[in-house]
TrEMBL record:
A family per Pfam: FAD_binding_1
GO terms assigned for molecular function: sulfite reductase (NADPH) activity
The name this protein goes by in its record: Sulfite reductase [NADPH] flavoprotein alpha-component
Keyword Cytoplasm among record annotations: no
Keyword field: Amino-acid biosynthesis, Cysteine biosynthesis, Electron transport, FAD, Flavoprotein, FMN, NADP, Oxidoreductase, Transport
Organism listed in the record: Pseudoalteromonas shioyasakiensis
């Protein structure tokens, strides 16, 4: 029987369960559906063999090592998963929990906690860590005397508040009485090796007490029945990307636009990469060869010199083109380059963090080298630089429609500085240097914090100005393929209607077909007074609130520093205006929406 034919009379499931199951299956590809089928069958068999109760990976009443993670792009979740795997390989009982799903009241029952958390923006916690991060500062937070904790943070040292959220968590746990059992690690974007070392060290610290508790309880680790495992992940990852064909790079802004936005199509044929609307694509790029040659000239390094990068040997020129960061500047580079060159000006900056931030803000790495040339050994130059990191882009397509393709909406980063044009690392490569048909290394990054409702009847409101339209194009393709009956409302903004209405024909087509119930556009420069998406939200205040009260999910994608904050404030004002709530109650309304996964952000 097809799932679409199920009804309450024909199955042991309730109608609500049928709807949830239909929503889940619609998100899965055939391989994932087959895995779920096998998992459920194994679980049912295990329940029958154990008197209806499936075995779980618990050890008697011994307290587990609870791993709490908060992840914005998936990196912290990945580290937390590796920590879980390593702990289980030592025979330790582990509980892995997303902070968004963790009940803070459970803290008083914990004995061993590890925190794996990222930081984004101006030292802010990721979305799924916000509630716990705040709870720890309230009077409701329990005393944690006797609790042992270890914290690892992921961040980007090019930002001022590097790994601030990890520092906050450790400080707040300590204030509540918890003991830090292993030194906190604050890791930069090139974190893999250091994370592996921290995991080993942290587990060495936890293992004696965990095993003593385990033995005292008389329990032992019980394996999952029938070897049930996690869903088969793609063989292609951040560490092992897929060499995909770049099929299309098409400019979708007008000739006179102040923005250069490209629609990019990449073929995934020959890979096992799958993705769900809301996910991101990691893209590795090649640095500009002309800039690489200039760097080699400025440092008087022979392009054919052989260098070591980890376990790999290659020429310095190839390393600079393919493997090392030359655009995004960060304090660590300035410090290492200052020491290597002995530059008095740079060494002075190292002593003044505020001056350092001001210095690197307008400069890319090659600017720093250009303005402070010095003769270096090839390996010394390599050692000053960090590994090139993939750039993440919100996926702008649904596999239900494009199958073995993935689409992106890429805004070219371009600006003039110090007398020359500057381009973003990846956006410059895709928009200016990469040719259609070439190979580009990619991997998918799942984002469980930005998902369509499982129930296709649920209405959704999408706010995506500029390239923030990307995931909502994917949402609309997916809902179209599912023949979802839920209402869809899109808010889109950009400077000019004639130059910057991204995917205009598609949006108007969805509006005509009825898939899009409403579209509100804000073209800020088409009239004397600037109009933004938050203004359009306020203009539709009563109807927006009615949708929220009817169960709508609300999504924001785009700039975190200004747009997302302005939209959030507009929502607070809308709730106050239509419900009589005050500021605190309106904020609580939004927190409740977040807790129910009805208020989600994909911001950068």
């Amino acid at each position: 029987m097809l799932l679409s034919q199920l009804n309450a009379a024909a199955s042991p499931l309730s109608q609500e369960q049928v709807q949830k199951l239909q929503g889940l299956v619609a998100e899965l590809n055939p391989i994932q559906q087959a895995w779920v089928s096998g998992y459920l069958a194994a679980n049912a068999n295990a329940g029958a063999l154990t008197g209806g109760v499936a075995a779980t990976p618990a050890a008697g009443d011994a307290p587990p090592l609870t791993i709490l993670y908060g992840s914005q792009t998936g990196n912290a979740k990945g580290v937390a998963s590796k920590l879980k795997e390593q702990a289980e390989s030592r025979g330790l009982t582990v509980k892995l929990v997303n902070m968004a799903d963790y009940k803070p009241t459970a803290l008083k029952k914990e004995k061993f906690i590890t925190v794996v958390v990222s930081t984004y923006g101006e030292g802010e916690p990721p979305e799924d860590a916000e509630s716990l991060h705040e709870f720890l500062t309230t009077k409701k937070a329990p005393k944690l005397d006797g609790v042992k904790v270890a914290v690892i943070g992921l961040g980007d040292s090019s930002y001022e508040f590097f790994c601030q959220t990890a520092k906050d968590f450790e400080e707040r746990f300590n204030k509540l009485g918890a003991e830090t059992i292993f030194q906190r690690a604050d890791l930069d974007v090139d974190y893999d090796d250091e994370a592996a070392k921290w995991i080993d060290g942290a587990l060495d610290a936890f293992e004696p007490d965990l095993k003593a508790q385990q033995q005292a309880s008389g329990g032992q680790v019980v394996a999952m029945p029938f070897g049930a495992a996690a869903p088969a992940a793609s063989q292609y990852t951040k560490q092992n990307p897929f060499a995909a064909e770049l099929s299309v790079v098409q400019k979708i802004t007008g000739r006179d636009s102040t923005k250069d936005v490209r629609h990019v199509e990449i073929s995934l044929e020959g890979s096992d990469i799958t993705y769900t609307p809301g996910d991101s694509l990691g893209v590795y790029f090649l640095n500009d060869e002309a800039l690489v040659d200039e760097v080699l000239t400025l440092t008087q390094v022979d392009a054919s010199s052989t260098v070591k990068l980890g376990d790999e040997e290659l020429t310095i020129r190839d390393a600079l083109i393919e493997k090392l960061e030359l655009t995004q500047s960060y304090p660590g580079f300035v410090e290492k380059y200052a020491t290597a060159t002995g530059s008095p000006d740079l060494l002075k900056l190292v002593e003044d963090k505020a001056a350092m931030r001001e210095y690197i803000e307008p400069r890319q790495i090659f600017d720093i080298i250009r303005q402070n040339p010095a003769q270096l050994e090839a390996q010394t130059l390599v050692d000053c630089l960090r590994k090139l990191q993939a750039r993440l882009y919100s996926i702008a397509s649904s596999q239900a429609e494009v199958e073995e393709e993935v689409h992106l909406t890429v805004g070219l980063v371009e600006f003039d500085a110090f007398g020359s044009e500057h381009l973003g690392g990846c956006s410059g490569y895709l928009a200016r240097r990469a040719e259609e048909g070439c190979k580009v290394k990619v991997f998918s990054e799942h984002n469980d914090n930005f998902r369509l409702p499982a129930n296709d009847e649920t209405p959704i409101i999408m706010v995506g100005p500029g390239t923030g339209i990307a995931p909502f194009r994917a949402f609309l393709q997916e809902r179209d393929a599912r023949e979802a009956s839920g209402k869809n409302w899109l808010f889109f903004g950009n400077p000019h209607f004639t130059q910057d209405f991204l995917y205009q024909v598609e949006i108007q087509g969805y509006l005509k077909s009825g898939l899009l119930t409403k579209v509100d556009v804000a073209f800020s420069r088409d009239q004397a007074e600037k109009v933004y998406v938050q203004d359009k939200l306020r203009k539709n205040s009563q109807e927006v609130f009615a949708w929220l009260e009817a169960g709508a999910h609300f999504y924001i994608c785009g700039d975190a520093n200004r747009m997302a904050k302005d939209v959030h404030q507009a929502l607070v004002d809308i709730i106050k205006e239509n419900s009589g709530k005050d500021d605190e109650q309106a904020e609580q309304y939004l927190k409740d929406l977040r807790s129910a996964n009805r208020y989600q952000k994909d911001v950068y």
